[in-house]
Amino acid sequence: MTHLKNRTLVTVLLLWVAVNGFSVRAATPTLSDGNAAYVSEDYPRALEIYSELIGEGYFSAELFYNTGNAYYRTGDIGKSIWAYEKALRIDPSNEDIQSNLAFVNNQAIDQIDNSKPGVGTWLQSVLFFPKVNFWSWTSLGFSLLFALSLILYFSAKTSRKKSLGLLLGGLFGGCTLFSAITAHQHKLFITEHNQGIIVADDVHVKVSPVEKSKDSFTLNSGSKVQLLGGNDEWMQIEINGNTGWVKLSKVWMI
Amino acid sequence: MRIGFAISLVLLGICSSAQNIYIEVSKDEVSVNESFTYSIIAHKKCEIIAPDFESFKVFGPNYSESYQSNNYGGSMQSQQTFTYTYTLKPTAAGIYTIKSAKLQCGKKAGGESSEEVKITVTTGSQSTVEKAGVAEFYLTLESSNSSVMQGEAFTLSLKFYSRKQPSSIEGYENGIADGLWRQDLRKPEDPYEMSRENIKGTSYYVVELRKELCIPLRAGKISIGPSYASLVFQEDIFNQYRQDGHSNGLEIEVLTLPKDKPDDFNGLVGSFELNDNVDRQRVSAGQAVEVNISITGYGNLNAFDPPKMELPPSFKWQEPTYKEELKNTSRGVEGTVEYTFSFTPTIEGEYRIEPYHFSYYDLPAGEIKHKTTKELLIAVDPREGGGVLVEKAGSNEISSQQTDIRFINESESLLLQEDDLFFGTVAYVVGLASPILLSVLFVLFRFRRENKSENERLSERQRTAKKIAIRAFVTVNKLLSEGGEKEALKTLHTALQQFFMVKLNLSLSEISLQRISSGLKNKGASEGSISAFEVLWKNLESAQFAPVGSENLAPLVASAGQIISKINEELI
């Protein structure tokens, strides 16, 4: 009986070790692990960790920024630009990202100016500089204030209090609407893939999505393009009014 | 429709039906460059051999056919006419004979020939001189200079002379001239000014139809063809007639410019001044500098080539902006042209920019002159905030130079996933909507409470009447324990009154034993409950007049509670 108990205990222990060991191997590395690899100048390892995190669906401005650095250190300008562009989507006013993106862009073969300065770009940088959920929480706060203003308005006994309730209700209602719309736009800005970066050199942009189709023009690594749509193999792109098709593997979506 | 000086020369007796070919010319005396028509008319459809038109510029021929049928004394005679019309323009003065045209029918040698035509070509001035003081109407074309330098401005003036006062000017056409830049000095909206002049004893109305600024583009003789004008005159009160004609032609001698021209001579002729101005000569790297270069004067200023500045490679620059204030005058194109250069030094240092210079032929001095701007020294300080500026390849952008990328961000930031984006989640929607919904519910509840009917209020009061009464009994018991029998009795009585007022919807004045009993009966209370109530009520009334101890009052309170509870259950 004692012998049987000992065997059971050993079995349980072995199982625990096996499961624990497996879980240690399967654990996702952290951003700190990648950073540590980068600091120790093991750029391929850093890139591997960052890429794994991105593959798992994680994102943050820091993750993409560091990924951009790692790509740059491994000599991949196009993917480096892609990562900085992704980082800039999450934190458009980050100077480090802007600086490195400008620096790496200068080293790209194609120097195509397809920036679109305007009110929209300015608004993006102004409104989307806070953390990703800032506007969502702000809209909730304004919603609460709006509700309190409504209560004040309907429960007020004097016309003065009613006017105050109405004024505050209008103000907070407008703020709720504005912050909710901004939150929606911010989410779209981060998650919508309407632009892409060419990640290979000498990419022949085709007239139609067929391998034998004629070349329309050629792009090189780092060129930023608008994505118009596509299928499982090809993506239709547009750059400064020129459109064409490229292989899906040659363009990474921002 | 233009009515020309249709001098139809029927050179061969056109009445002679035997003649199958003859010539018609619109004029037999013309000026140099003045057009006239030469028509070969044939009555047989045979081959026409036109003569050589030496000394004439030839345009055409234009071909036409006509058919004519006549009845002479009952017999029909028909005739076909074939016409070849040439437009001829003499190139030099003299008397010219245009040889016969031939009509060749079949392969037979010979054929019919027309007569030769003699054309007298005068220089324009010669014919004008002959007309002056004699003709009813004539046109003159005059030049301010008969000999000019290449690029030197002169004027042409087209005038008409008429003995009668014209009522209107129908139109005019300039004579052709090659190698001449021409601009009308008269604005279209300017009215024509009419004056009177006495020419060789004859009084003429004179109008300057056109005054042109001309600048010769090449050296040598430039022929200016006669100009054409058409004017309308009032014959009487109802009728008008038209007169048109050509002016004389002109020849201008254009002299070549001196051969030893400097390299920076671009053909400017006139009188010019060069001015330059720089907004600042000490800047920080990245700051723009503006340089203005302006040329003022008169002459062929329209031929001025934009100035060029030789800038150091580290300077970024833009195409110069151009501004002009020019007008055409009899001295040429007169005014100022101004170029503004904007450039941005990107690297600190001292820079010397070569002056801009050009040469031109100075008309008043009669020699080539040289103009130059001041030498430009630009001191470029380091960029504010330090660093060096570099240009971005293929563009004029300036960016801060980095030798390497900035280091990674090592902060322990929170990694997000798409689910972490709060917007659009159920929690977000609930969080956003719930305060608003709750406030709306609150408002509705309040609204409903404020707008309850009397029956609803009564029902509510009736529902809570027992609770209020029981609460009062607790107070009564407390008063009894404290020795306040009188107060307790009063409170108990009041509580019962309140209970029945609410339950039976009675006013205080209506409260009495009979009224309550009948009310309880009507509302469906049992006989036992009614009897118990009546005993209780009487006991309470008697207790008010006879002092009762707390030991007797306590059972009364307890029975009151039971009776009220029972009645409350029984009442509908």
Description:
The complex is a heterodimer of chains A (about 250) and B (about 575). Chain A contains nine helices and seven strands. With about 250 residues, chain A is of the alpha+beta class. A five-stranded antiparallel β-sheet of chain A has the order 6-5-4-1-7. In chain A, strands 2-3 form a two-stranded antiparallel sheet. In chain A, helix 5 (about 75-90) packs antiparallel against helix 6 (about 95-105). The longest helix of chain A is centred in the C-terminal third of the chain and has 33 residues, at about 160-190. The N and C termini of chain A lie far apart (about 65 Å). Residues about 15-25 of chain A have low confidence and may be disordered. Chain B is built from seven helices and 33 strands. Chain B is about 25% helix and about 40% strand. The model of chain B is unreliable at about 1-15 and about 385-400 (pLDDT under 50). In chain B, helix 3 runs antiparallel to helix 4 and helix 6 (about 525-545) runs antiparallel to helix 7 (about 550-570).
Short description:
Chain A has helices at residues 2-26, 31-39, 43-55, 61-73, 77-90, 95-105, 119-127, 134-155, 159-191, and strands at 195-198, 203-206, 215-219, 224-230, 234-239, 242-247, 251-253. By secondary structure, chain A is of the alpha+beta class.
Number of alpha- plus pi-helical segments of chain A: 9
Q: What does the oligomeric state look like here?
A: heterodimer
Biggest sheet descriptor of chain B: 7 strands, mixed
Distance between the termini of chain B: 118 Å
**Kindly state the mean pLDDT of chain B as a whole number?**
82
SS-based class of chain B: alpha+beta
Strand content of chain B: 35-45%
Span of the ends, CA to CA of chain A? 65 Å
Helical proportion of chain B, percent range: 10-25%
Instruction: Identify the overall geometry of chain B.
Output: elongated
The pair of chains with the biggest contact is:
A-B, 52 and 40 residues
